[in-house]
Amino acid sequence: MKELEDRIRKDGIVREGNVLKVDNFLNHQCDVSLYDQMGAEWARLFEGKRIDKILTIETSGIGIACVASQHFGSVPVVFARKTESTNLDGEQYRTEIRSFTKNRVYNVIVAKRFLNPGEHVIIIDDFLAMGCALNGLLEICDEAGVVVEGIGIAIEKGFQPGGKELRERGYQVESLAIVDSMDPETGDIVFA
């Protein structure tokens, strides 16, 4: 998606360790107009598929998924929590995921009442690199008996294996910007 690639070129910051900071518009300060364009593009890419819910993970995926929901008939957005809460009651799906950027393991939780067997979902998230978060969400979907119609990603690091592995497993992964390479010394970002 050209608008997203242009914004990454303009405001993205490349750091050592394959880190791409996009907090100016995507995952700290939110450009809602850009989110809306992203949602419209995912709706086009997943056109014709039954979508009952959108699944994401806190925190960066929530805003993107909520705006995208409007392009899928305002379907509910369910987000996996990374922390226990006294507000979580009833039975829950749980899995562990490793965060690439935070270098730690999270216990991820979704209340069972929000994912019902036979529902059709798409998963939306801000980044795809190694695929750890998505694999955790897919485990929850499998346990819940929901049909995963596809995965929408804002930015994929194409030089890391997550996207390739998910596609090889048969998932429709639609990344709006795929970074082929990035150089922390020059700040150059090359897209697929």
In short:
The protein has 192 residues and is an alpha/beta fold. The chain has five helices and ten strands; from the N terminus they run H-E-E-H-E-H-E-E-E-E-H-E-H-E-E. The longest helix has 14 residues.
Write the layout of secondary structure elements.
Elements: H1 2-11, E1 13-15, E2 19-21, H2 32-45, E3 53-57, H3 60-69, E4 77-80, E5 92-99, E6 104-111, E7 120-128, H4 132-144, E8 147-157, H5 162-168, E9 173-182, E10 189-191
Parallel strand pairs: 3-4, 3-7, 7-8, 8-9
Antiparallel strand pairs: 1-2, 5-6, 9-10
Care to describe what's here?
28% of the residues lie in helices and 33% in strands. It is of the alpha/beta class. The chain has a single domain (2-77, 114-191), classed as Rossmann fold (3-Layer(aba) Sandwich), CATH 3.40.50.2020. The strands form three sheets. It has a six-stranded mixed β-sheet, sandwiched between helices. A two-stranded antiparallel ribbon has the order 1-2. Helix 2 (32-45) packs across helix 3 (60-69). The longest helix is centred in the N-terminal third of the chain and has 14 residues, at 32-45. It is globular, with a radius of gyration of 16 Å. 34% of the residues are buried. One of its GO terms (molecular function) is xanthine phosphoribosyltransferase activity.
